[in-house]
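Forwarding the complex inputs:
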Amino acid sequence: MITAAAEERQTYLNESYGIKSWLLTKDHKRIALLYLATITLFFFIGGIFATIIRIELLTPRGDLVSSETYNKMFTMHGVIMIFFFLIPSIPATLGNFFIPMMIGARDLAFPKINLLSWYLLVAGGLFAIFAMLAGGVDTGWTFYTPFSSSYSNTYVVATVVGVFIAGFSSILTGLNFIVTIHTMRAPGMTWFRLPLFVWAHYATSIIQVLGTPVLAITLTLVGVERIFHIGVFDPAYGGDPVLFQHLFWFYSHPAVYIMVLPAMGVLSELVSTFSKKQVFGYAFVAFSSVAIAILGFLVWGHHMFVSGQSAYASLVFSFLSYFVAIPSAIKVFNWTATLYKGSISYATPMLYAFGFIGLFTMGGLTGLYVAALGVDVHVTDTYFVVAHFHYIMVGGAIMGYLGGLHYWWPKMSGRMYPEGWAKLSALVIFLGFNLTFFPQFILGYLGMPRRYHVYPDEFQVLHVLSTAGASVLAVGYVIPLIYFIWSLRHGKMAGANPWGATGLEWKTPSPPPTHNFEETPVIRHEAYDYAALMEEEANVR
Amino acid sequence: MGITLPLFPEQASTLAPQTDHLLYFLLAVSVVFSAGIFLSIAYFAIRYRRRSESDLPPKIAGVLSIELTWTIVPFILAMIMFAWGASVFMQASRPPNDAIQVYAVGKQWMWKLQHMEGQREINELHIPVGVPVKVTMTSEDVIHSFYVPAFRTKQDVLPGRYTTTWFQATKPGKYHLFCAEYCGTNHSGMIGWIYAMEPQDYQAWLSGGAPEGSMASSGEKLFQDLGCANCHRADAQGRCPNLVGLFGTTVQLAGGGTVKADAAYVRESILSPNAKIVAGFQPIMPTFQGLVTEEGVTQLVEYVKSLGRQPGSGSPIGSGTTPAQQKTLPRDRAAMPAIAGSGPTQR
Amino acid sequence: MSASHIESVERLAVREQFDTAEQQKDAATLGMWIFLVTEVMFFGGMFCAYTVYRSFFPNTFGRASSSLNATLGAINTAVLICSSLTMVLAVHFAQLGRRKLIVLFLILTMLIGGVFLGIKAYEWHEKFVEHHVPGPSFHLEGEALQGQAQLFFTLYFAMTGLHALHMVIGIGILTVLAIQAWKGKFSPAYYSPVDIAGLYWHFVDIIWIFLFPLLYLIDRHMPK
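Prediction (whole assembly, three chains):
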């Protein structure tokens, strides 16, 4: 399909100008870009904290920053990366932009609530940034009591208020997605014709809606305890600090699935498009997403095996934790099988997909180690766990995010990114990532605890390797920032469907018009039907 | 300048090889699955690389038998992992009956340890090789965690409660002790050493002595100084339950219910006495919160333990049994030194 | 059909993201139900803390509970149930497009809600005077376990406070709706804002139905 010159054609980008048209927009696509800018900013702020941590850890002594400062660095790194980058990332950018398009709708069910969600993220972020600038917070992103409620002398309340507000951003996004997917699918778009990206976000939204409120009330109670000096989790008043942990992890475990399920949704799209083949075992992948969402709520106690909870509780949580591993494994196998007899392209999004499968597999398999009671006693609260979750969150979720960003960039911006630089940075990120985090598995099993500012000399070589990796990784993240911005002016113009992908979003021009579709589409095919796509294209020609 | 690059921790306890064997199994499974997936992807990506934009791959929706296979096989492996891990864990959770007792109090940012015989240590713990050691721990402030990588043991240390861990060292040496739960500014400074010694060297170290005497005798002194003896009298005329023979028995509570008279119960009775009232008694005991430190409480626990059991009586306190001698021969090995005034029995 | 009814039908706008009015109504209703689920989880964290601590300290919680004014609590329960009745009637008349009756019942609901809040404020005042507010001056007469008793009151104030906040927000929403109803916005073709506000109001009522026995009636059956 030949598009008219983009400058003359009305798109969501040029239909109105001026800051008010962006700050008061109701268009899900513009809101997605507002989110994109915001979370990118938070990512680099979180990255600065990580940089300071890794530089400090080059030497066993505390020679770069004081202990107080170091403790604030890892706390704020965690708080920013989790609550202000990872949790919103894919859903609020790619999900916001593409879920309505994928189901044939003109927008989400509640566009004004969508805009409110963005403002809530910004407001929460302002509280968190205020806390940082005013002096920081040093409780760890996990806010364990009684340290956070009675002992820390830092800006705990400001931070938990920021997280609380951002939590409502997450809840409203989830609510919006669930209602949209239920009530606004175009005629013919049955549940089992939905792209797997949509299924993944549906499952994610269930978690956001059910889990986040529990975090909100828990942090509120910590704030109340702190401000009014009364004991809710304080043993001096008969309160139980382990109760805090139960309530905290009840959200924070499912939260990790909020962070990874959307990336898995991206993966299904990438693997399919770049093999030109429907995803093997569509129903299994779809149901796996929902299974992960449900089972994810039953395993929180695996963060608490040595917390003092009863051994029998630990047994139950370990047992259930093995169940939640299985659906993730099923997805990896299905993506691999999709490649069989496919037509595989090595475009950048596919490189990120390969990277995701490799690194998520490693991260996920190490999850089996920490789920094993006998091993977890040794490795919990060590760098082993740090490596495990970074393999999944960074090696998995962030690579999925970058893959999706590259995949949908042409659609969102109308421009191609430079493929050579993109492949290079994908490789740099992959290598830098492994060098950063693989040594941390070894460090952890050796016994190096987490959140240590200084450490015994014998751990230094592994830390130096890890910091070297982090420098490479940092470069890998900066390059795309530069070329994506460059591409807005100088990138090759993109057509409607540069990848030959199925899915309704590719049937619109790049960038799409404000209302997505001229008329509500009618869906007649299954998802990922490349034969039908090629037939259509042949008819048009 | 030597560069050390350790890659694997040493094994210094009976638990360590068990943990490591489970690790090897997990490693083996991971390597097999990772290799399988990575090699498949590499093979497919090369063999089926796109040769032309007009390629149209076949439609393969899925094969149920394959799906079930790669669901069920991993599930079985996962259950094996669970069972193996659970078995190692349950063993690690149950200290043997003949373990020697040590008390640890964690506070920002140090470990205070005390042996039954009275020796105190700060950030260090001397133990004999080949003998199970049970550590009963509490915190004076925030949550800490007692972690000895070479032993593969770790247990969070909580304020307001006792938690316990145990280990049996298998070779003499000096092993890192780390606090493994973030506890504030000097968390990474809350470290120390476990010194495992040959039994005779340990005896020699112990007999270096403790100026204040055993924990139980320190506890007895506290018992007198705090006025506990005014109520908790040897004869049955006290308004309070008799403590002789109490430790380890089951106590009947007012309003129904029972509780085991263990270390946690003794601690709670001292600090929060009205939480549980013994059947037949009134809630008149004042709290000693603020009047005694956690270490003092552990000494009182050892003292109460040392009061031992009445001979031939397994009956619960609070049912009107008459106390016999004040300090009878205890069944707990742990309590013996307090009475006999000598070192622990050799294994 | 009255003239104003026809007007409101004509003014009825299906928002541009929706294809039909029915789709819009379905979306709004599902959205409110999901929001109420999030509210259940929000209150749920505190119900969980309450359950854990009551199981640890049943007697203290019983004694602390009996210091609350169960009569006022029971009156408040009846008050809220009445407000749910008036709310249902407001929805009913919205479905019929009876403009004046919608406004009447919305206002009645708000007033009865105000009565609830007034009684609540009085109860809290009583607690303040009796030194049952957690903090440095907390003291429950005749109670050996002051810390644990303070836990009960922390939960009492947190849970009833959060509930009261939701009522205040609810009254705010009903105010907006009453103004819109007065302007003739609602009709048989378009009444879902009143409908879903009703769902919210009933939810807030149901939370109270749980709070009342759990906070006020612990151990009431036990002989003194």
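Chain C has seven helices and no strands.
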